[in-house]
């Protein structure tokens, strides 16, 4: 099925990603009218100065200044400029590039890469200076013959992530080694694993708390109790929020019909989806799509 999502990564960057798994470049010059970035099999960490609106999944933020932005492979994002110029740096890398290292877990479990979070951080002058130095170091060795440059790139990525975590600590720390936290993490990972929805012919399989309890081989009452204790929210609310967030992203960033979105999210009939969406959000799918395309 055709969608509106097209990658704006330059061709040369795509070629480098395929052959090397990593690319770093300076971002500068005239901003296109809009950039719509599809879900792809790479991460991006961008430090950019400019004046624009960033739409990430179902969320939106106005950005005027210097920001650090993290994009994971599972979520659409769209950049709508309000000024003609921008400057900064970007590094792009595949999961294979960081596989087999502690960095993989750091990225996957960091709130900066969770689709439920909004990974945009405003930077002060000291933070900009520190991060600029890291990006310049990566650029200085990118085309060199230095034999350990991939390790240097991975260490630089880790430094950027740790700097970001100091700026904005995790809202939800699930690293505690207790049974409730482990069960909650298993539930959240299983919930997130179902996304993104790339094809309405392959709908969600787990949509209720009972579905997740069966998949995790626990009683539904235990799952509900532990998830509520750790997150403060019922299991059903977390499921509804994630399904609704995906629905909003598909409505805003693709040209799928409402019926296709409904089927992709596991609803047997579009009417069921419309009623569900309105109950959770207070508005209709068509209203969200109309508002986004005004």
Automatic annotation (TrEMBL):
Keywords: DNA-binding, Transcription, Transcription regulation. Residues 185-291 form the HTH araC/xylS-type domain. Pfam families: HTH_18 (PF12833). SMART domains: HTH_ARAC. InterPro entries: Homeodomain-like_sf, HTH_AraC. It comes from Chitinophaga silvisoli. GO terms for molecular function: DNA-binding transcription factor activity; sequence-specific DNA binding. This is AraC family transcriptional regulator.
């Amino acid at each position: 099925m055709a969608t509106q999502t097209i990658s704006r990564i330059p061709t040369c960057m795509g070629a480098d990603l395929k052959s090397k798994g990593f690319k770093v470049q300076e971002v500068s010059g005239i901003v296109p009218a809009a950039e719509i970035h599809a879900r792809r099999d790479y991460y991006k960490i961008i430090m950019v100065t400019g004046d624009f609106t960033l739409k990430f999944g179902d969320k939106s933020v106005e950005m005027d200044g210097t920001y650090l932005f993290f994009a994971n492979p599972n979520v659409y994002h769209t950049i709508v400029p309000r000024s003609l110029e921008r400057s900064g740096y970007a590094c792009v890398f595949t999961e294979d590039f960081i596989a087999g290292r502690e960095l993989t877990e750091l990225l996957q479990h960091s709130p900066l890469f969770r689709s439920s979070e909004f990974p945009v951080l405003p930077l002060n002058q000291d933070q900009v200076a520190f991060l600029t130095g890291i990006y310049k170091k990566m650029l200085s060795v990118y085309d060199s013959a230095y034999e350990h440059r991939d390790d240097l790139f991975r260490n630089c990525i880790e430094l950027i992530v740790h700097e970001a975590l100091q700026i904005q600590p995790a809202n939800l720390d699930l690293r505690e080694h207790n049974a409730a936290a482990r069960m909650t993490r298993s539930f959240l990972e299983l919930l997130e694993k179902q996304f993104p929805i790339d094809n309405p012919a392959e709908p969600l399989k787990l949509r209720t708390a009972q579905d997740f309890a069966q998949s995790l081989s626990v009683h539904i009452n235990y799952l509900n109790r532990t998830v509520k204790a750790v997150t403060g929210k019922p299991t059903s609310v977390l499921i509804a929020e994630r399904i609704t967030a995906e629905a909003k992203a598909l409505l805003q960033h693709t040209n799928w019909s409402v019926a296709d979105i409904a089927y992709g999210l596991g609803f047997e009939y579009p009417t069921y989806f419309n009623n569900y969406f309105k109950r959770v959000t207070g508005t209709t799918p068509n209203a969200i799509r109309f508002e986004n395309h005004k």
